[in-house]
Structure formats: C-alpha cells, structure tokens
Amino acid sequence: MDKIAPISVQRTFWNEWNASYREHDIQDVCVRQAEVVVGWLNALDQGGIDILEVGCGSGWFCPQLASFGRVTGTDLSNEVLARARQRWPQIAFIAGDFMKLDFGGTFDVIVTLEVLSHMPDQKAFVDKLSTHLRPGGYLMLATQNRFVLERFNHIPPPAPGQLRRWVDKRELHSLLEPRFEITEIFSVSPKADRGIMRLINSRTFNRPIRALVGDRVERLKEAMGLGWTLMALARKRC
Question: CATH topology for 7-189+228-236?
Fold first, then answer.
C-alpha cells in the first residue's frame, strides 16, 4: 500500500504533471478515451445536458463535451485550471479536492478519465460520484488496466504526491455495482513495452496486418481485454 501524501503535495504534483503533459500534448491513449466517451454521448441523443468532468486536468476535453451541453470541469490542479479559464471561458472550472467539493446540484452525466487509480479511498470516490448524478444519470469512466500495466509495461515508480492504485476489470465491476447498473466495461488502446505483447503490439509487426484489415486487429485486442485503459459506462440506480 502506497503512502498517502498530503493534499498539498498531490496538488503540486498534478500542477506540474498537467503543465508538462496535458497543456501541450494529448497522447493517443487519451484521444481514444475521448472517442469512446463522445460515442456514448452521441448514443444518448440528448442535447443541453449538464456534464461534470472530474479530474479534467488541463481542461483539454471540456470543449468537446460542451457540444453536448453545459460543462463543469474540476481538478486539484489550481494553477492549470486558472490558465484553462482563460482559454475556455465558456466552461465552469472549479479547482479543489473533489472529495470535499460541493457543486450545488446534480448532473446528467459525469465523465472521469484516469482518476480512480489516484484516489486513496476508491469506494468513497465512486459513492461521491453517484451523489452528484441525477437518478438515472450516466457515469462514463476510464481507468488504467492493472492486468496490462503490471504484466506488459515498464512503469516508473510513483513520484512524490502521485497515488497509484490500479484495478482490473473484476475489481472495477465490484466498485461500481453497488451504486450503478453497469452497461459495459471493456478495454481500449493496446500498448506494451515488455513481454510477448511488446512484439504483438509493435508497429513493425502490425504494419502489414493493418494494411490488409485496418484497425480490426486492434479492436480484437481491445475486446480480449489487452488495452491500456478500462472504459466503463454505468447508470445510477434509481
């Protein structure tokens, strides 16, 4: 069990991390997560909804979400969000510790990308997400896939202020099930830098296959649970 750093140390880490990795460059893994969420929102076929993005980082995804309704973005990174307000004044950005914030209302949809693994009490986090959803509201969640990261990737140890508690598909299901009706959980973004999956996912190995069948092999790997990210769509129990 990793030691829980004070919230001030966590805030410093995420301000620096988001300034380095999310204000200037959005990686393929994030793009794929956003693609899935946009697909879910399109399937709802509802306009003008209220959306909360928990752990919005630099706010990069909020403008896309805003095409579906009113968006509130929240993150611990107060310095980064101050800059986000200047870039996207149409978004309501609220800086602070999500577990202590009161948003003064509930939302139709909550989006949260790669936040669960950084929460010291994951059950309490899921419970709080539920309290900010209207009955029948949707949770759209992405989190790191413990099965893939532990077996097939070299990941540096956590930095000071960085909590790391990955989950696998079964653990994620158990966390969500008490509060939500789970529509689907699946993996996306096959990625590996060690073991047999390094070869299977290599660009050299996949180039001739993609030339023949496009992205179908990548989608097969995702369906087999070999993606970097677990995506979950769930509806709050009424």
Answer: Rossmann fold (3.40.50)
